[in-house]
Amino acid sequence: MKPLQASSGDLNADRRADYAEMLFADGDHAAAAELLLGALELTPQWAMGWFRLGEMQQAAGASDLAAQAWRVSLQLDPTDRQGAAPYLQLIGKAPVSDALPSAFVETLFDHYAGSFDESLVDKLGYRLPELLDQAIRTARPGRFPLALDLGCGTGLMGQRLRPIAGRLEGYDISTGMLKRARAKGVYDFLGKADLRDFSYAGPKAELVTVADVFIYVGALDGMVKTIAGLLAENGLFAFSVERLSGSGDFVLLPSRRYAHSETYVREILAANGFSILSLETTVIRQDRREPVDGLVVVAGEVHAA
Fold it and tell me: In the CATH scheme, what architecture does the domain 115-300 have?
């Protein structure tokens, strides 16, 4: 993952930061961190710079210094657009939270919107839209009068849903992603929304999809409860998670994504009135040339939870 690009506002500091990135790319992590620290002496209020310094120090094996840099980044930007808090959690310097910072997720996807489809599909072998589409058609052939695609991104899932949806609405936290989705012309409506605080006043939907979104949320009970309230009677809920093979309900991975256990997924669905129509373990993408296992799930038969 390439670093988020942001200027310090000082030309000399930016030049030093660029040189630091060159050293880092060559594998000289300690020298890169030292040079970036010099840039931060010129621009001590540069939150992104402190965050990147933490990454370089962590790569150099200096976890305590990395933690200090990430704490400074958080102090300068409490919304945590950089994603410092998850890194602190991963090195044991902060308790694990139930979800990633919303500002971080929004910034991340705004940053990648332009190259998202090419990177995800062509380079990482992203297959979730295809897999979810197959699972939905198997569970219930036919058309759905209203489908809601939550976390729609650039519209990869929407392209699959369009032939089976009478009306298709997409919602995403990233303005950049929504712009790309709008250009594809597959949605009847697109809206900006943080799905952890999703408010919807429209009619009940016959289908709700959440493709590759729960990897940014650890505790799923709140969102699943919200989705149960969105569905019409006998509506379908189709979604994916990264699969946790070890113990526990969910774990924050070094990728700053969450993995969820099958047991946890089953318990959350049952607690919110869902029965599982299909649940498949499959490879959903590649990450650092390694296959990533996920769960592709279709649930239905909503009852009062």
Answer: 3-Layer(aba) Sandwich (3.40)
